[in-house]
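Methods — Computational structure assignment.
A single polypeptide chain was analysed. Its primary sequence is given first, followed by the predicted tertiary structure written as structure tokens.
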Amino acid sequence: MRTATREPGVNDRQDRKCSDPVILNQWHPVAAVSEIPPAVIEETLLLGEPIAYTRDSDSNLMAWRVDEAAAGAPVVDSDRRLPIRTDFGYLWTSIGTPPAQLFSLPEVDEPGRIVHNAITVGINVSAPRAVENFLDVAHLAFVHPGSLGEQPHTEIRDYEVSTVDGDIWASDIQIYQPRMAAGSTSAALAEYIYRVPHPHCAVLYKRAETASGRMDIYAGFVHALSEERIRLHLFDCVVEGSATAGEVRRFVQTIVGQDKSILENQNPKRLPLDPRAETPVRADKSSIAYRRYLTEIGLDYGVIRALE
């Protein structure tokens, strides 16, 4: 079994290791299962903690803490083994005591859907900043012109935000989009529903053009390498129709590429939770609800809880 190239920064010990139980005791998405090669040990960070994972010759997956005192390349260490899950086609693990279950996406099991990891991209920003950007409807016309928005169609009508069983839901969001999906051929008024089921994950439900009543699902699953560096996994679960899997993947990759530079230029990189820190507008209702949620659960890692 060989060792793959380490993640950038895996030897960078200036990153603060997480001591925040709110996020330590969560499941975290480390990699798309389909992209984990057999018999290769992959090294990465999780919340500033060195970990490794692999798929053995029998396709069994495993993750473990790396012994920082050990010399040389890491080897499989069953004594330092971490819990794992494979929901939605990703390897999830935790360095704390995670809940018995992860949130559900029942649509993943429906027939007639394209389900895959569209892209995994490294971004120098905190996990909460990335989730907030995912929820930000106001930026679509400015950052994604010609696809998810277009000037002068910048107005976002008032929409509903609620909390159901601990999840944030933002619904009845309508956005003019020149190209609302990979297979779109004309502009349309898109219908959005956002859901936040996890501090580092956000889900978008978007009305599918090809099937009445069904919705495409796009999700951002964030792997926090450290407090201000992440790997963002973009998950697609879209209704089969006018676009191929490759076209769907390229469409999402273009959107993520446009967002990456915006996120990396955010200052500060951690997300301020104090409502006085950044001036909100009406379209920011989902972002405001997300910040309030992080405040209420007591999250400390990757955020600025009070004005500094």
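Note: Confidence is low (pLDDT under 50) at residues 9-14.
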